[in-house]
Design brief:
4-stranded mixed beta sheet; 3-stranded antiparallel beta sheet; 13% helix; 7 strands
């Protein structure tokens, strides 16, 4: 039996032309995942669509001086690591340039390659998000942080890999 949904989130996964993902380091005062690295994301407000939330959160968390292109959108997925109580709407964007201006919710940002990803202390669910979007081969993700249905390798190689 599934637990009732308690909240809905839009999560923005931004990939640059070097196949790196944008990670934001959450402040120590963050309610969810303090001090951990995560994607720009947030709660979907009442009377707000997932798309509106995604764009609002990007504006709030990284500013407005950039260009992005929507590559894919997945909706909704029940989270695995918080007991299935969240509906997650995933947005995968291509970064086409600009500047990042962090707000008070974050202390740093990094463009992270698949090979460096395991060096970052990330929020639960991020490996799952990357796997659902099929961005990197699963060998770069922590199998203990993937639900069983996502543990099978189906990703295509990264650019430059054999």
């Amino acid at each position: 039996m599934s637990l009732p949904i308690k909240a809905h989130f839009s999560i923005n996964v931004i990939e640059n032309s070097d196949n790196q993902l944008l990670l934001l380091k959450r402040s120590a005062a963050a309610e969810l995942g303090p001090g951990l690295w995560g994607f720009p994301a947030g709660h979907i407000n009442e009377h707000e669509t997932p798309e509106q939330c995604a764009l609002r959160e990007l504006s709030e968390e990284i500013g407005t001086d950039y260009k992005i292109e929507l590559l894919q959108q997945l909706e909704p997925i029940r989270d695995t690591f918080y007991g299935g109580i969240y509906h997650i709407y995933l947005f995968h964007y291509r970064w086409n340039g600009g500047n990042i201006l962090l707000n008070h919710e974050h202390t740093d940002y990094a463009w992270v390659s698949a090979g460096d990803y395991k060096d970052f202390d990330v929020m639960d669910g991020m490996d799952e998000d990357i796997a659902y979007l099929d961005i990197w081969p699963k060998k770069y993700l922590d199998p203990d942080k993937l639900p069983a249905q996502l543990q099978k390798e189906t990703s295509s190689p990264l650019k430059g890999e054999d």
